[in-house]
Sequence to fold (254 residues):
Amino acid sequence: MNTRFRPDEISQRIAELGPWFQNMTIGGVETAPDHFLGDYPNCKWKRFCHVIPHDLSGQTVLDIGCNAGFYSIEMKRRNARRVVGIDSDPQYLRQAAFAARHAGVDIEWRQMSVYEVGRLEEKFDLVIFMGVLYHLRYPLLALDLIHEHVAGDKLLFQCLQRGENGVAEVAADYPFGEWDIFDWPDFPKLHFIEHCYSEDPTNWFFPNRAAVEAMLRSSGFQINAHPEPEVYLCTRGRRGYAVDPPPAIASQAK
Fold:
């Protein structure tokens, strides 16, 4: 273990840095042993970790909304050449720095939001965007910025979902008088939280599965794997015409 602290000192420092959302074991001490989701996020990671190569040698990784650094540390354990973790909350970054130090891994931590990723001026082989989208007032903007500025190849994505798990077969267009599709439970929908959900005022939008997949495609991400109900592994592709119109439409707009 790469630490200068005794177990009692580790426990004290974990308490000082709390509360923790991610449960991690540091020097034999759990950071959030009473987490309402159990051993989270490790219990979730085990269900989809197989879609990430065991050896990421030579690859770069950006972890957006890194929290206490669980996924960033896992990527370094898979030999990623360089990992950058960003979060808008300085408390989480302090937790992440502490956890990484005791894991013996070198990770770059930066305080910034997803809306600021253009400042990085770099594209990464793998972008991790886990558990962030539903905390954003402007979710589609965030996906567009990731696609434009930092996604070089792969996107590992997760979002809390509510509503129907089915995915409707949606036509390319509908007439103005069409109403029925909006009552389909499996039509792409974002449920807006005006006040609070689970005592968290930053929970803004909960999509159903159809909306998650449609938003990813609209932002230019091709879904390659869906290994866990809320998790997707995507490849960066071309964005839909709503963002980049086809040449014929673009020429007509001039």
